[in-house]
Amino acid sequence: MRTTLIAALALALLGGGALAQTDDDAAQGSAVTEESSATEATQNGAADKSSATDAEDADAAEAEAPDAEAEDVAVREMTLGSEDAPVTVTEYASFTCPHCATFHATTFEKLKADYIDTGKVRFVYRDVYFDRPGLWAAMVARCDPDRFFGVSDMIFDQQRDWLSSGDPVGISEALRKIGRVAGLSNDQLDACLTDQAKAEALYDWFRSNAEADEIDSTPTVIVNGAKQGNLPYDDLKAIIEEELAK
After folding, report:
1. How far apart are CA 82 and CA 222, in angstroms?
2. Which CATH number fits domain 1-246: 3.40.50.300, 3.40.30.10, 1.10.10.10, 3.40.50.20?
3. Can you tell me whether residue 179 is helix, strand or coil?
4. Are strands 87-93 and 78-80 parallel, antiparallel or unpaired?
5. Could you give the count of Cα atoms lying within 13 Å of 37 in the half-sphere of its Cβ?
6. pLDDT given for residue 73 in this prediction
């Protein structure tokens, strides 16, 4: 049975159990492997405590929602640019990663103007979740998929502000404010931020993608399937030009 950690990622907004990542924490290093190890340790510890309890919980969950697995909550791939573009650039990023905010304020803006808007590059954005605030931010950005890139720009631009309180309530309210400015209603935000099924689906999606592409830091850029890491724009541009010349 999945531990309560994943559910807590979505539902901690209603309680006081969240632990926010500060700018200093993020600057120390954003390793997916550390988050994964912590999650696995929590899962293993819970299993060691009582397998019988897990079995009972699983039975109870099945009784309450017998069609939970059949629900199959879809996670939408967030993309920009032409589907037929000759080059695909995939970025793995976390909303609580300072380097990701810098990437979006500099490299991404140039990439969009030079290659995405001109039909040469298809851009794919994939979330990485180091912490609960990062997941909450993604859930706000994804609340209306058609507004995703506009909202995500605001979240990255205001990263220091909405993370500054270090308090779960303050962080959640700051994210809600960004959502409201972007045109989302309070009802929409409430529904998105308490959607446990979507939180679980997003977390599983992140883990699957990160493991498949061997992502261990953010931002990580992949160009036509080849992992490049975090590149200055001129280096990224040179790689894209090589791909376009093939």
Report:
1. 17
2. 3.40.30.10
3. helix
4. unpaired
5. 5
6. 83
129 closest CA partner among 8, 1, 3: 8
Other C-beta atoms lying within 10 Å of the C-beta of residue 148: 19
The yes-or-no verdict on residue 130 having pLDDT over 50 is: yes
Helix axes 32-49, 196-212, angle to 10 degrees: 120
Query: Over the range 32-43, which residues count as b (16 or more CB within 10 Å of their CB) and which as e?
Result: beebeeebeeee
Question: pLDDT (tens digit, 9 = 90+) per residue, 101-115?
Answer: 999 999 999 999 999
Q: Rounded CA gap, 133 and 41, in Å?
A: 20
Domain boundaries, the chain: 1-246
Gap between the Cα atoms of 175 and 163, Å rounded: 9
Rounded-to-integer distance, Cα 120 and Cα 54, Å? 50
Q: Write out the E strands in 95-182.
A: 121-127
Q: Do 174 and 165 touch, CB atoms closer than 8 A?
A: yes
Q: What is the DSSP letter of 221?
A: E
Helix (H, G, I), strand (E, B) or coil at 55: helix
- Strands 87-93 and 220-223, bridge-based pairing: antiparallel
Fill in the amino acid letter for 196. Answer: Q
Q: How many CB atoms lie within 10 A of CB 236?
A: 21
Q: What is the pTM assigned to this prediction?
A: 0.73
